[in-house]
């Protein structure tokens, strides 16, 4: 590689950044243009209020799309009643306020019982509202999900939501480039979720701080778009606001024919551009992390941070294994909160609830994966509740067409309406104190799924196996 080549070689992040750069300031910050703005009910009310107070209109209406997800009930009976069926007053008000604001400002919204409603990070890609090469923002930290399509996507705060609505631009500081390369072949029963948890176990929850992460290598090349979304979704749990995968045939195939995807000549032009959206050979990364995919086992988080995660075949780590005193303290607190003993086998952990859902793992492939483990078997008696919550109305419909709902229901699962559900305790789906939950979501801090609740992060296949066994089991030998 000649010096000139390596000087001009760009990472995917550099390319996306440069393509959206409006202006650069002396203080190191830049103004970037935003192509797609996703909105939900939690982080938008004050932004709309600010807009109204300043007497401003959204700058580009068609860039915005809204859907309620965090506060919607998932029980069918309540759901059918629409917004008025939301029992909790604060939740009801948030969803109603989103409806009112979207109507007032003329912003497109998939409302509570629209067949396209769902978790904003599931809905965007599935509708073709998020396309390769876009800058995508949302007042939600898991916006990183969309980087799976070769986008520059990250979460923003409420004041930034207002800024984007008003100007379609955002003041940002450029991150450094990190490459996470996973080569080798994943074993049977090892999924995208296990890959990302294994990455977090390796680099820690602060490992990606200050970086935009690009995931590359054989494992991601062979991974479906849905798997890539699962991985990019948790870039934020690895400390990075941005996670990305370069565009390839899998990306283009996924985007093709979606409701809002371009067609005809525009499609041809778009594909030509999208095919340039990968890091150039010789591009400079400030940090490179490598993992061997063939060594990754199904993962289970035992503690109160996504980095407190081990292979299902292992034990809750002992204090002697901690790297320093700070970690010893964190682990001691986590044993206590989680009600676990150090050195206890992971497969000894009994489960009270099972949650298959969230923007990490509620797409059709996730449901298929769980259903294939469950088929013809029954949820264990000690499990009080097992719920499956499709990420969107479209996923739910597709799953029903494939008969997956029946597989779950016959096994003793509840088949719910789409939303964030038990991923966070912002709606009626919650853990009781001390309950252990095998959850396909992305966060496990204290109280995340309900006051005193104990979350264990796993893949859909591992959650399914745990539901049947009543405790964690290695899905590879189940
Ligand atoms: C409510 C929202 C702001 C929050 C986020 O930003 O991630 C939520 O989606 C979460 O997962 O904790
Ligand atoms: S599913 Fe969970 S992580 Fe995703 S947006 Fe909803 S609350 Fe946040």
Automatic annotation (TrEMBL):
A GO MF label: metal ion binding
Domain of life of the organism encoding this protein: Bacteria
Aconitase/3-isopropylmalate dehydratase large subunit alpha/beta/alpha domain span: 14-470
Cofactors demanded by this protein: [4Fe-4S] cluster
Cofactor notes: Binds 1 [4Fe-4S] cluster per subunit.
Pathway per the UniProt entry: Amino-acid biosynthesis; L-leucine biosynthesis; L-leucine from 3-methyl-2-oxobutanoate: step 2/4
Record's catalysed reaction(s): (2R,3S)-3-isopropylmalate = (2S)-2-isopropylmalate
Catalytic activity, EC: 4.2.1.33
InterPro entries per the UniProt record, alphabetical: 3-IsopropMal_deHydase_lsu, Acnase/IPM_dHydase_lsu_aba_1/3, Acoase/IPM_deHydtase_lsu_aba, Aconitase_4Fe-4S_BS, Aconitase_4Fe-4S_dom, IPM_dehydratase_rel_enz, IPMI_cat
Binding residues annotated for [4Fe-4S] cluster, in chain numbering: 359, 420, 423
GO BP: L-leucine biosynthetic process
Pfam families for the chain: Aconitase
Keywords from the named record: 4Fe-4S, Amino-acid biosynthesis, Branched-chain amino acid biosynthesis, Iron, Iron-sulfur, Leucine biosynthesis, Lyase, Metal-binding
Class of the enzyme per the UniProt entry, highest EC level: lyase
Chain's role: Catalyzes the isomerization between 2-isopropylmalate and 3-isopropylmalate, via the formation of 2-isopropylmaleate.
Family: Belongs to the aconitase/IPM isomerase family. LeuC type 1 subfamily.
Subunit and interaction comment: Heterodimer of LeuC and LeuD.
Entry protein name: 3-isopropylmalate dehydratase large subunit
Species for this entry: Psychrobacter pasteurii
UniProt lineage: Bacteria, Pseudomonadati, Pseudomonadota, Gammaproteobacteria, Moraxellales
Encoding gene per record: leuC
